[in-house]
Amino acid sequence: MKKSTFSPTQIAGILKEFDQGKSVELITREHGLSRATFYKWRQRYGGMEASELKRIKELEEENAKLKRMYANLALDLETARYIIEKKL
């Protein structure tokens, strides 16, 4: 998964610009992002402050890490079951 080049503070600032009345076309051109990215941010992070946005990003990273750990453990368990089954 590609890491975002924008910090949570920058994302919050971009969304605030829109709330203050700047057009989407102008915002996307100034910051070099796509309209789809802008609307996805707006849908996901609209109305949040930078600190809340930062916390959500941290939780998403932690969740991804835990999912990878679970997948590795499940694979190890499956391998162990296969080896035990083969010996019996």
Q: End-to-end distance, in Å?
A: 41 Å
Helix content: over 70%
Task: Report the order of strands and helices.
Answer: HHHH
Overall average residue pLDDT: 89
The number of distinct β-strands equals: 0
The radius of gyration computed from the alpha-carbon positions, rounded to a whole number of angstroms, is: 21 Å
H/I helix tally: 4
Sheet bearing the most strands, described? none
Structural category: mainly alpha
Question: Which runs of at least 5 residues are low in confidence (pLDDT < 50)?
Answer: none
Beta-strand residue fraction: under 5%
Shape assignment: elongated
Condensed summary:
The chain is mostly helical. The protein has 4 helices and no strands. It has helices at residues 8-19, 24-31, 35-45, 50-87.
Descriptive terms for the model:
88 residues; mainly alpha; elongated
Helix-strand layout with pairing:
Elements: H1 8-19, H2 24-31, H3 35-45, H4 50-87
Helix pairs in contact: 1-4
